[in-house]
Amino acid sequence: MPSEPGFSNMLPQSIRTTMACYRFHLFGQIAVIRTFITTFKRSLVSLLFFVAASPVHAEIYKWVDEEGKVHFSDRKDHRVEQELVNVKPGSSSWSGFDIKIQAVGVELTDEEIQQITDGVNNVYEFFDRIMFFDMYQTVPVNLLIFSNRSEYQHYLLRRNRGRAIASYGLYIPSENQIVVYVQKDRSRTFKTIKHEVSHAVVDTIVPYAPAWLHEGLAEQMEMLERDGSGLYFKRHDENRRIVARAQDNGRLKGIDQFLKLQSQKWQHSDLSGQGSLRAQAGQFLYFLLAKPTRRNFLVRLMHNFNRGDRTLSYYLVDDNYIGGVSVLESDWGRWLFNQGEPVIRL
Predict the structure, then answer these.
(1) What's the whole-model pTM score?
(2) Which residues pair with 288 in a beta bridge?
(3) Inter-residue contact 155 to 165 (CB < 8 Å)
């Protein structure tokens, strides 16, 4: 059905042409304004990101107490005589942590303090930028470092932590403390510190995280590094060998068994020292972190548990992993052939 002629159609052709020119000019001006607004927004976002990402370097202070114990902290304390440690500008811009280091019977060099500082910063940055948790609400880190394993074990026994006596380090939530000892290969000590810092972070921000996720993240934090291009993970060769051996022997748990295992049973099996659960947890996290789509699945799981969800991980897969459980099992099976690339850049 034909429509009624509009008002403009009743006007002379010359007037309609003039009106069209004005409309064209007006729309052109609007387009210019819109382009300006869009460009301004983008510039503003970039500026805010630049300001937010600008490095702020914490100062580290050192002092010795009356018992001869060496302490480190990023807080100035005018009650004691402190020495400013020469810490180089960190490769990470994360320095909002509250870290206190007490070394018992061992002297830490400035370079080693730098390693600890950068390691803690890298773990914080991972959870903030990759896992999307607000790490400006920092988790205090009180670090106690013993000179040898014997002193470390005696300390744990005095605090009824004998079950962890064979460990390299331990996070004690009730005291908000990380305890480690200096290993023969001192670089392993710094990896242990990053491992335990991860436990401290997850325990604080994701208290309902299942044991496999808790331990898998901690295993991977050992291998977290940073260079000029940003954060990256190196492959955990020890865990890779353990998982490969378990697979060859037919002892590697399937994804359904692995993700259905309750935390208490998981921890009991892990503490028994039998099996390969810890290594599998670390490698499964490496598998998830290797690709953006799988990384997104990990982020969704973490935030589900952060909201208090206590559902077993297996039953969250279909809603959060593209293709569900069957595709996850298939992807994991294919990945196990070579267990991924030597390096994952984030």
Answers:
(1) 0.75
(2) none
(3) no
